[in-house]
Design a protein that fits this description.
mainly alpha, 0% strand
Length: 216
């Protein structure tokens, strides 16, 4: 369910809002994962990390700018996708060890098929045969997605979360640069300020988590 939610709404966000905005909002995923681990799994999260979580989520609010002319309801597509991915990460962490990374990845990609079928039925648009160029683009997306998903699942299940999570913030750089270079997007102050709040909060949570682990 979380995989379908994340994939469906985030792909819709990618197609309907600027790439840079969708990418930045996705960077709040680790904050939601930490909050979910505390609420669902009972992991100990002190007031400092809870404060950082709220500061990071405030960064998301700064980016979408509710109540202003720049606000778009379509931004909530990226937020729903982010929540779905956070739930997916928590479920992956809770999955029994007998389920291999390959099997979890298979389930994840099968859920994409389900999400695509549900959206096609809801949209009511007949299927069309893609052109050669579009077929190559889809193939590239599939190959990149399979490789990235497999590596991410393996890292989340076998590596230290504090060591793995910082690499997720490199996606912010790629998303912003690609949005500017390929799609002519522009960064505004709200985007930069919100991005800063999210990244600083995420890195603080990782640092604080290491401090707590060392103390214990």
């Amino acid at each position: 369910v979380f995989e379908i939610t994340g994939r469906l709404f985030y792909v819709l966000a990618l197609s309907l809002i600027p790439l840079s905005a969708a990418t930045v909002i996705l960077q709040a995923t680790p904050l939601v994962v930490v909050a979910g681990a505390a609420l669902v799994f009972g992991e100990k999260v002190g007031w400092r990390r809870w404060t950082a979580i709220f500061v990071g989520l405030a960064g998301v609010v700064v980016i979408i700018q509710p109540g202003t002319e720049s606000f778009s309801m379509l931004s909530f597509l990226a937020i729903l996708g982010m929540i779905g991915f956070a739930g997916r990460d928590l479920a992956s962490r809770a999955a029994p060890a007998v389920l291999s990374t390959t099997i979890l990845g298979l389930y994840g990609f099968l859920s994409i098929v389900v999400a695509g079928g549900l959206y096609s039925a809801w949209q009511g648009v007949p299927f069309v045969m893609p052109s050669g160029e579009i077929s190559l683009l889809v193939l590239g997306a599939i190959l990149a997605g399979v490789a990235a998903y497999s590596c991410l699942m393996k890292a989340m299940r076998t590596g230290e979360v504090s060591a793995v999570t910082p690499f997720r913030y490199t996606r912010l750089l790629f998303g912003i640069v690609l949005g500017i270079v390929l799609f002519g997007e522009r960064l505004n102050f709200a985007m930069m300020a919100g991005s800063g709040l999210i990244v600083i909060s995420g890195l603080f949570i990782l640092w604080r988590g290491r401090q707590v682990s060392t103390a214990e």
